Amino acid sequence: MRYKLACFDLDGTLADNVTSSWQLFHDYFRVDGRTGLMPGARFVLEHLKESGMRLALVSGSVNVVLDHLIPDHKKIFDHVHLTELFFDDKGRIADVNPTPFDMEGKAIALKNIAAKESIPLSQCVFVGDHHNDVHIARAAGLSIAFNSPIQQLRTASSIVIEGKDLRKILPYILIP
Ligand SMILES: [Mg+2]
Predict the structure, then answer these.
(1) Rounded to the nearest whole angstrom, what is the distance from the C-alpha of residue 61 to the centroid of ligand 1?
(2) CA–CA distance, 26 with 157 (Å, rounded to integer)
(3) Is the entire prediction scored with pTM above 0.85?
């Protein structure tokens, strides 16, 4: 396989109908069902995992969103970087561990992960949708702008996918 590691953004990429994690965070506590996984996201993650790729998630979003959308994410992702919220016994936010890996930091996170895995960046794929993904898109060997309204990201990426079916990324990643 040409590519050995796939790294995903969360908000607007694996998570549908959200550009800000805090909107989804809000919806999560209201539990009104307006948000969910991007169509095809589960299929794509499982397919890439079964094909032997290492999987990573690098997001400015919050852990409760990932816990909500992909409850078994520890079995799927080999590396996760996002903002962590911790709760007390009464369910109140007790502490916040903000991720240092947003914006330019996303590219640093990918470089760190690739180094840990001993996989060259040229064999790493990144999939994202917004302004904060431009630097990491430039760092990855294959970058995919997914359903992105951001011209800067579309220009910085190797591939542009229109619409909200994540399965469309697979033919570009699963190359012998
Ligand atoms: Mg995003």
Answers:
(1) 9
(2) 31
(3) yes
132-166: per-residue pLDDT in tens? 999 999 999 999 999 999 999 999 999 999 999 99
For the segment 50-83, what is each residue's pLDDT rounded down to a tens digit? 999 999 999 988 898 898 889 999 999 999 999 9
**Distance of CA 90 from the midpoint of ligand 1 (Å):** 31
> Which segments within 2-161 are labelled E, that is strand?
5-8, 54-62, 79-87, 93-97, 124-128, 142-146, 159-161
Which domains, from first to last, does the chain contain? Answer: 5-173 (3.40.50.1000)
Determine the distance separating the centroid of ligand 1 and the alpha carbon of 93, expressed in angstroms.
24
Calculate how far, in angstroms, residue 145's C-alpha sits from the geometric centre of ligand 1. 10
How far is ligand 1, taken at its centre, from the CA of residue 11, in Å?
A: 4
